[in-house]
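Sequence and fold:
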Amino acid sequence: MSVSKDGYAGADNKPALALSGSAGVPQVPAVVPPPTAPPSPLRRRNWVWWASGIVAVGLAALLYLQPWVAADPVISVEVVTLGPVTRVLAVNGRIEGVQSVDVRPQVSGTLTGVMVAEGDQVQAGAAVAQIDSSSQAAVVRQALAGLDAASVSEAEAEATFARTEALGSYSARVALESAARSVQTAAQEVARMTALLDQAQLQLAKFTIAAPLSGTVLVLAAEPGQIVDLSTVLMTITDLGQLVVETDVDEAYSTQIKLGQPAVLQLSGEAEVRAGKVSFVSQRVDQATGGLAVELTPDTVLSAPVGLTVTANIIVDDRASAITVPRAALVRDATGDRILLVAGGIARLRPVTVIDWPAARLIVTEGLSVGDVVIVDATGITDGQAVAVAP
């Protein structure tokens, strides 16, 4: 085959070397890729089978798991049995003295002396403070002088009456009667002045403040030079030999508290527990707080600071055999109290009667029998719902 002048091959389709310029440098021939063979029919069928198998397995898993169907809730249950039950009311109280008095003055004035210090022990009737009594002392002296004058007048009247009476018939009857009236008037004046003196002396005694009971000065708020009146609390005296625990019980449980009920006391900061009993129950609920005042007395003499916090458990009820359920098992609505039981994998509501009490478990008096299976937590469970019991 001949090569044309433009550098392309002739009719036999074989490539030719083209000349470049006058130097005659040959050009690189173009590379033509070989044709791709069509896919095998057998290989295409294998891919179809694999895809079909994967789809079938996925459909089987969906049918087995059924994620569009809600699963039965898993619940915890307990079997009803009889057992001993103690119903306890837990309260917090403080130690107080059986006898405790806030000492206030009976008159107004300026304190001239305080004879005790905080923590001192005093005897009933002992002087603990003194108010300036100079003005009242003057009143006493004035009353005493008046009494002396009245006594002198009485003596003169009696002497005059005696002389007049001694004259006998020589004395006019009118003069004798006048002398007798003078004696009577003088005696009345003596009695009046005596009463005034007694009153002044009693008032003077109030300027010396005495301890109303034997005990310990817990709080002292008086200072010499302080001006006081009838509303001023000078000090607090408490008998530390008789201590009790004072507390308040919510009015919802006030009818459950009785005299003599046992109690367990634990003082703040101590691990030891002490036995005691209910020694006082108020018959009046405080309208401001809704609390009922209760006192607990320990079985042994208590030695502790007044005001110390005490945790007390009052034993309200003690039963040798009773049925109890968790509080969370109770369903309470307008129809009453009910419990959810499990029978054949289905939750069923049953009316019950319980003793409502601030505790984790409630006593059931009616509605349950030994062997019943109770759902421990009824939250979100409805009557007739299918449930699964946790293993």
